[in-house]
Amino acid sequence: MKPAEYYQRDRTLHPPAYAPDYKTSVSRSPRLPLISLQNSASEITGPVFGHRDIDPLDNDLVRNFPHGGDPVGERIILHGRVLDENARPVPKTLVEIWQANASGRYRHRKDTYLGALDPNFGGCGRTLTDDNGNYFFRTIKPGAYPWRNWVNSWRPAHIHVSVFGSAFAQRLITQLYFEGDPLIPHCPIVKTIPDPEAIEQLIARLDLNATIPLDAITYKFDIVLRGRRSTLFENRLEGN
Ligand SMILES: O=C(O)c1ccc(O)c(O)c1
Q1: Residue nearest to atom 5 of ligand 1 (CA)
Q2: Phi-psi region for residue 68, left (φ > 0), alpha (ψ -120 to 50) or beta?
């Protein structure tokens, strides 16, 4: 079989690790040049998730944290495909999401934002892609929230997304935003991304054809794992 063609990313288009307008990047960014580690057995192999590890409600954030009712907020479907650099589907891949509720509050002890917690919303979900690389979640559209970057810094509504490879050490993490959100171009984290096309690729598109009438609005977000069309991943640093 002919080996698959590999299209290299343009690494100059990756956000710099050190971006002073995104305050926490200052203490987090490496002071020394990066080194490349050789893969060992634990990076290449290991336990993986199978269908039996996934509960049927794991991809339904409207129902997977029930405490007497449904969560408040805009009901949405989030779907898309996980693809390789040649737009081939990546099947049986674990996709996980985590997010704030409709008020912009995370169910996390360190989140002290005054937006209300929702007793019926946990904010975490997971699923495996199907044979065609499709994934599907039902959830609530997260709210925007303020954060202590500079005075009046607001995060646009966003959902964190993690994709695992064939071992737990192979993990890519990104955040998706929502089409039409006026906060996107003001976000200090988004503004670290030098390539406007890479930002566009992080924006889930309204998918009116796939809405569920009288129930949920649908957004579509495809994830490209590598190559020149790769989605931008926050844990894949420049030079990697
Ligand atoms: O990296 C951070 O500091 C940071 C702050 C706020 C967020 O919403 C986030 O996703 C990351």
Answers
A1: 147
A2: left
What pTM, to 2 d.p., does this model score? 0.94
ipTM given for this complex: 0.92
Task: Work out which ligand 1 atom sits closest to the CA atom of 160.
Answer: 10
**Active-site pick, 105, 160, 226, 236:** 160
Tell the residue nearest (CA) to atom 1 of ligand 1. 24
Average pLDDT of span 43-57: 84
Query: Is the C-beta atom of 24 inside 6 A of ligand 1?
Result: yes
Choose the catalytic residue: 22, 106, 135, 219.
106
